[in-house]
Design goal:
Radius of gyration: 21 Å
Number of helices: 9
Strand content: under 5%
Number of strands: 0
Shape: globular
Oligomer: single chain
Helix content: over 70%
Distance between the termini: 65 Å
Order of helices and strands: HHHHHHHHH
């Protein structure tokens, strides 16, 4: 019985690792683009604007991992072992979801850093709220209509017609509104945690450098 349970858990993890790895890869694309776009000083050439469009096209993939919790529910029904669920499945899902959402948070922090650097600090909050709204729509398209980021290129007509038509219904608008609130709330929390950890690390580095500079040579 125990060997059968372990085998089942390994099968579940193997299946999950495939889509988790792919979803995390998609989530880290906008993170990498945010570093290239917003952290390096460069002019806004056509290549920069192209990267900016791709950044927003892929950004919903980062918070999209929040919706993958539905797979956890299916896995819990499959495994049916409290210990395996508590010690294996839940930590794996939490790690993947947290990594994806943290990619979203850092991407927006980089975007805000860029706006501050070019003297547009007053636009940071508005840019964040607009981004949450766009990502809420993107998450709905991805979860319910099964659109992907590259569908903007491969089937733009379907995205513009079916996608826009679907979100105008009452139920989709409610789902998108709830998603927006969740994104905004979680981002507000995670942003402060991330910035706080970043400041703490900077303070540690500064103190370490001071300590080293004050150390007498022997």
């Amino acid at each position: 019985m125990k060997e059968e349970l372990i085998t089942r858990v390994l099968q579940v993890l193997k299946i999950n690792m495939n889509w988790m790895t792919w979803n995390l890869f998609l989530a880290f694309i906008p993170l990498a683009l945010s570093v290239w776009l917003f952290r390096f000083k460069r002019g806004r050439s056509w290549l920069w604007w192209l990267g900016f469009v791709v950044f927003y096209a892929f950004l919903p993939n980062a918070p999209y991992l929040l919706t993958d919790v539905i797979h956890l529910i299916d896995d819990i029904r499959t495994v049916q072992s409290v210990w395996i669920i508590t010690l294996v499945l839940i930590p794996v899902y939490l790690l993947a979801i947290l990594a994806g959402f943290e990619a979203y948070v850092i991407s927006l922090i980089n975007w805000g850093y860029y706006l501050h650097r070019i003297g547009k600090s007053q636009w940071i909050l508005r840019a964040e709220l607009i981004t949450h709204a766009l990502c809420a729509v993107g998450i709905y398209w991805g979860r319910f209509l099964r659109f992907n980021s590259w569908d903007f290129i491969t089937q733009p007509d379907a995205v513009l017609t079916r996608g826009v038509e679907e979100i105008l219904g009452k139920q989709p608008l409610v789902i998108i509104a709830i998603t927006f609130v969740v994104l905004a709330g979680l981002y507000w929390i995670m942003q402060r945690v991330t910035l706080s950890l970043g400041r703490s690390q900077t303070a540690i580095d500064i103190n370490s450098k001071k300590a080293n500079s004050n150390t007498p040579n022997i």
